[in-house]
Amino acid sequence: MISVTDKAKEKIIELRSKDGLTDNHNIRVSVQGGGCSGLMYDLDFDSNVKPSDQTFEDKGIRILVDKKSLLYLIGTVLDFSDGLNGKGFQFINPNASRTCGCGESFAV
Fold it and tell me: Which ranges form a coiled coil (predicted)?
């Protein structure tokens, strides 16, 4: 399961509206090779649900994850921060053994 905080939910709704997207545009979360720690998060809107996708819904936000990425993301919480130390989406991933300073990549 992947969940979202209230702040992340608000920001997702705001961005979807700003981009002129409908509620049919879900959040796709995936993991790609790269970054300074070896694996990087990828976050995007997607209205195409693939047969192999795992689908989660939390606080009215539908989240799509491919099977390979799910292995790295189980239990992850998607948050949003707009504080002094940085602005953007953050992944609170219990599976990560280390993360880089920017929070965009991780290792397991």
Answer: none
The pTM (predicted TM-score) of the whole model is: 0.85
Task: Give the contacts of 9 (CB within 8 A, at least 6 positions apart).
Answer: 59, 60, 61
Contact criterion met (CB below 8 Å) for 24 and 98: no
Check if the beta carbon of residue 28 is closer than 8 Å to that of residue 45.
Answer: yes
DSSP 8-state secondary structure symbol assigned to residue 23:
T
Answer whether 42's CB lies under 8 Å from 64's CB: no
Task: Please give the structure tokens belonging to residue 24.
Answer: 């049919």
Q: Output the tens digit of pLDDT for each of the chain's 108 residues.
A: 899 999 999 999 999 999 999 999 999 999 988 776 688 889 999 999 999 999 999 999 999 999 999 999 999 999 998 876 667 898 998 988 767 655 556 667
- Give the Cα separation of 37 and 51 in Å (integer): 30
Q: What is the spatial distance between Cα 106 and Cα 69, in angstroms, rounded to a whole number?
A: 13
